[in-house]
Amino acid sequence: MNDIRHLTLRERIYEEIVRMIVSGELPSGAPLDEKALTEKLQVSRTPFREALGTLSKEGLIEIKPYRGFFVRSFSKKETEDLYELRKTLECFAVELAVPQMSDRHIANFERILDEAVAALKADDMVAYGQADREFHETIAELSGNAALIETLSRLALQIQIGRTIANESHTFAEDAARERDDILAAFRRRDIKTAAALMHAHISDVQRTVLARFEEVKPARR
Predict the structure, then answer these.
(1) Among residues 60, 20, 24, which one has the least CA distance to residue 41?
(2) pLDDT digits (tens, 9 = 90+) for 99-140
(3) φ, ψ for residue 61 (rounded to 5)?
(4) How far apart are the C-alpha atoms of 139 and 122, rounded to whole Å?
(5) What pTM was computed for the model?
């Protein structure tokens, strides 16, 4: 995230609400209590609503007339589509990033994954989720493609609304950590094809886990 010292008030509010959504403090479908949140953030209504307008444009917040603001709730089909798009974009990011990786970059990936494993052992799923996001964000940054970086960042925020249900599973998190270790091994070999294939498989596994948690809602009989 941006250095908070250089953020405008609207940007600071935006960053804080994103943090609350990503952490699960504001879960999918939850209403946003404007009075409570402005008091908590110690801000006025105008910059708060400006930040919500930006979040709405990015697909994280829904504005429902006469009802207020809500964290967006994605349907099973919408979530599936988001992951399909992510697989395509993230594999492209891997293809661009691997040729740019130095030994220093590899060491940084090792640090990130070590932190993820340590968080798992400590049963700190918040820290685990942070390491997971850093791993994927670092790959995007190394791609050097500004449009791709921006698109993946926005997509990751939308996916994160539903991703927290996958990270609740310790077994799933352990499997995902092993998959990232395999991806890192391909990075060390600078094996673009294998790294991209492993990334595709990794995201597919996450997709299946998240989609499996959706309850199938049967149409009501008339």
Answers:
(1) 20
(2) 999 999 999 999 999 998 898 888 887 788 788 889 999 999
(3) -125, 140
(4) 26
(5) 0.77
